[in-house]
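debug: dumping io for the single-chain case to check the tokenizer round-trip. Nothing else runs in this session.
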Amino acid sequence: MKNLIIWSKIHQISKLLDLKIERRNTIVLDLLPEELEEAKKLMREGKYEEALGTIKLFENKAGISDEEKLSALILEGNLYTYTNKFKEVVKVGDTAYKLSQKLESINGSIEALLLKSHLVYTGSPSEALDITRNFFS
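debug: decoded output
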């Protein structure tokens, strides 16, 4: 019975933490500007060059917020993953990670670290392992 009570309390605390994190991290790929939604659609259709062009136009647009920039970077990194351009994935992932840290975005940091972990495919598995270890330490 005591374990059940402890488990219930842990579950309640977990729900509260999830709610706080969710409120703080509503960015990344959940609610995208129209241009990025279009890029996602193009990616689903296999039109990667068009999608990349749409993303790049959006990134160069004046007045976009850092949150929108982060969403664009993560979408761009995902696109490079689909096209096996792993050095680009890692480069974009690094930029996205730095921005996510500035924004204190947990979701953004996780997405960016996943992109950076593609170092494994560039012939740098030990560096990818170091990134993973640093994240969990």
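debug: round-trip ok. The chain has one domain: 27-136.
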